[in-house]
Amino acid sequence: MFFYLSKILLFLITPITWILGTLIYSIFTKNPKRKKLGFISTLIIFLIFTNSFIVDEVFRVWEIKILKTDSIKEAYDYGIVLGGVCWYDSQNDRIGVLRSFDRIYQAIELYKTRKIKKIFLSGGSGSVIDADFKESLIVKSHLIKIGIPAEDIEYEDVSRNTHENAIETKKLIPDSCNCLLITSAFHMRRAKGCFEKIGFKVSPYVVDRYSGKRKYVLDHLIVPNVEALSNWTLILHEILGYVVYYVMGYL
């Protein structure tokens, strides 16, 4: 039930839902004052949620700082990579990567430079429609194809969210192991909290940062950008997820 409710909440907090909602209201309301207020509200919401500078600043506050690779002096037993990084084209038997696939790229580099001894993939299907999708198994096959030894890749493919990532991973990795948790910078607060809540000590290794160097250029400061809408959806989903997890006792 929690899994399905989270998908509904994600739809409700999407900025495009708010924009369309206020626009539809302003079109169909018969009250002239409310109609005017509705159009103004739509414009304000649109300008805020298509502003790249504002959403970058929100990411800057939320994201956890990067652990520099050079600071890792002793190899970790496992690099735990959280899912939500790819999709699979079954028709052509080909993997398709998302931006968060940076989690896998960074894990490969850490493995190749001997900062981690093994790669652990955590994640099954986070989709309501394609519940049988086994992401970790597909990624493992991909890693083997590009030269990572099969014996150095372990996985679980039943978890559907971050809370389950932590629970299912802890079942398979001994408590004595030293682990590096690898996930996107915006996601690390919730991920690390979930692992530590169940007594799984991990060191955070953030990747895929959305907040980079501040840009004071006209198009970034003022010009509406459709990508900002997508980024707002991502960060609002993450913040809401953190709050809900806290209330549920997962953090």
Protein described:
Helices cover 49% and strands 15% of the residues. By secondary structure, the chain is α/β, with parallel strands linked by helices. The protein folds into two domains: 2-63 and 223-248, no CATH class; 69-207, Rossmann fold. Helix 4 runs parallel beside helix 10 (226-248) and helix 7 crosses helix 8. It is elongated. The two termini are 19 Å apart. The mean pLDDT is 91.
Topology:
Blueprint (H helix, E strand, L loop, with lengths): L1 H11 L2 H14 L3 H18 L2 H11 L13 E7 L3 E4 L4 E4 L4 H11 L3 E7 L12 H11 L7 E4 L5 H11 L6 E6 L3 H10 L5 E5 L10 H4 L4 H23 L3
Parallel strand pairs: 1-4, 1-6, 4-5, 6-7
Antiparallel strand pairs: 2-3
Helix pairs in contact: 2-3, 4-10, 7-8
> What is the C-alpha radius of gyration, as a whole number of Å?
20 Å
If you average the pLDDT, what whole number results?
Answer: 91
Q: Secondary-structure element sequence?
A: HHHHEEEHEHEHEHEHH
Name the beta content range.
5-15%
Structural class: alpha/beta
Question: Number of DSSP strands?
Answer: 7
- Walk across the major sheet and give the strand order: 5-4-1-6-7
Distance between the termini: 19 Å
Attribute tags:
alpha/beta; elongated; 10 helices; Rossmann fold; 251 residues; 2 domains; five-stranded parallel sheet; single chain
Short description:
By secondary structure, the chain is of the alpha/beta class.
